[in-house]
Design a protein that fits this description.
The chain is α/β, with parallel strands linked by helices. It has 10 helices and 10 strands.
Length: 320
C-alpha cells in the first residue's frame, strides 16, 4: 500500500488520502520509510482503521461457531502493536481518533499541515458488525415495502393506448401512485436499433466464420482501411415513458454475434431484434421488474408471450 500510494500522489502532483486497515498497514510497515522527509512532495494522508485485526471474519459463520478465545487469536489475529510509536519513530505526524465526531477535525488538521501523516481511527469489530446488520435490516424492510407496493399495481393496457388501473389497495398506496412515486408503471416506447461497423485494431482471436456471398457484411468481414477486419453489430435503444407520456429514461445495448463463438449471423440476429421491437412497443412495465436482476425471461413469457429460449444467444446474452 505505502509503496503505491506516495507514487500515486506524486504522479497526480496533488495530495492524496489512503484508507487502510491495521493488518494491511503492518504487512507493509516498511513503506513508512517512503513517508519520511516528504515535505517537497504532494502530501499523503494515511487513514488507518484500527479494529484490532481482520474485521471481515466477524461477518462469517465461524464467528459464532467457535469460542471467542479461539476466534480472536486464530481468525481476527490482533497484533497488539503500538502503531503510534512506530509512526513517531519514523518522524511521521500521527493523530488518534476514538469517536466519530473527532474524525472530521483530525482529517482537516492532517490535510492542512502539507506533509505526510497518519490518522489512526480506533473502531470495534463487534460494533461494526452490529451497525452493518442494522443497515441490512433497514434496507431489507425498504425493499420488501417497495415490492409490496409494486405488487399491488394491477396494470391493464388497452388496444389504443396504455392505461393504469389499480387493484383495491389501502388509500396510502393509491395516494403514492397518484403522487408520482417510484411505483408508477412505465411504458415501452419501442425498441430501436441501427447497425454499426468499427475497424478492428487487432485480429479476432476466435476462428473466423466461413465466408459466403450472402454474409459479406459479417462481423469478421475485411476492413479496407486496416486489412484486419471489422466488428459489426446492432446498437439498441429502448425508451421508457411514464403513462402521461413524459420520458422516464432510456437504455442502450448491443447485439453483436462473435464469429467463432456464435453460430448465428448478424442478419439472423437482426430478424429477432425486429420481432422484439414489435413485441415491446407500448408494453407496460412493472417497477418490480428491476428485482429480477437482469433476468426478465419469465416476464417476457408472461407479458408478451415470448419463450426466452427461442432467442439466439447473441440476442439473449446467454452462453452459446
Amino acid at each position: 500500500m505505502f509503496c503505491v500510494a506516495p507514487g500515486f500522489a506524486e504522479g497526480l502532483s496533488r495530495p492524496a488520502t489512503l484508507l487502510v486497515g491495521d493488518l494491511s498497514f503492518l504487512h507493509d510497515i516498511n513503506g513508512l520509510n517512503l513517508l519520511r522527509g516528504g515535505e517537497l512532495r504532494p502530501p499523503l494522508t494515511v487513514v488507518l482503521i484500527n479494529n484490532a485485526g481482520g474485521g471481515i471474519f466477524s461477518f462469517l459463520p465461524i464467528a459464532s461457531s467457535i469460542p471467542e478465545d479461539e476466534f480472536t487469536p486464530l481468525w481476527a489475529t490482533p497484533q497488539n502493536v503500538d502503531l503510534e510509536a512506530m509512526c513517531r519513530a519514523q518522524g511521521i505526524p500521527h493523530q488518534r481518533v476514538t469517536t466519530p465526531e473527532g474524525l472530521v477535525p483530525a482529517l482537516q488538521a492532517a490535510w492542512g499541515i502539507n506533509r505526510h501523516s497518519v490518522v489512526e481511527v480506533i473502531t470495534d469489530r463487534s460494533t461494526n458488525v452490529e451497525l452493518h446488520r442494522r443497515i441490512q435490516a433497514a434496507a431489507l424492510r425498504a425493499a420488501q415495502h417497495c415490492h409490496w407496493l409494486a405488487s399491488k399495481l394491477d396494470v391493464a393496457v388497452s388496444s389504443s393506448a396504455p392505461s393504469l388501473s389499480l387493484a383495491p389497495v389501502p388509500d396510502s398506496v393509491g395516494q403514492l401512485a397518484e403522487a408520482g412515486s417510484g411505483c408508477r408503471p412505465l411504458v415501452t416506447d419501442g425498441l430501436h436499433w441501427r447497425r454499426y461497423s468499427l475497424p478492428l485494431a487487432l485480429p479476432l482471436t476466435t476462428p473466423p466464420m466461413p465466408s459466403s456471398s450472402s454474409n459479406s457484411n459479417s462481423s469478421s468481414g475485411p476492413s479496407l482501411s486496416t486489412g484486419i477486419g471489422v466488428r459489426e453489430g446492432l446498437l439498441l435503444q429502448l425508451r421508457l415513458s411514464w403513462t402521461d407520456g413524459s420520458v422516464a429514461g432510456e437504455g442502450v445495448g448491443d447485439v453483436a454475434p462473435l464469429p467463432g463463438l456464435h453460430s448465428e449471423t448478424l442478419e439472423e440476429a437482426e430478424v429477432q431484434v425486429a420481432a422484439l421491437s414489435g413485441l415491446l412497443d407500448g408494453v407496460t412495465v412493472r417497477p418490480s421488474l428491476a428485482l429480477l436482476g437482469g433476468r426478465p425471461g419469465a416476464w417476457l413469457g408472461a407479458r408478451v408471450g415470448l419463450d426466452p429460449t427461442w432467442l439466439l444467444p447473441s440476442v439473449s446474452g446467454r452462453s452459446q
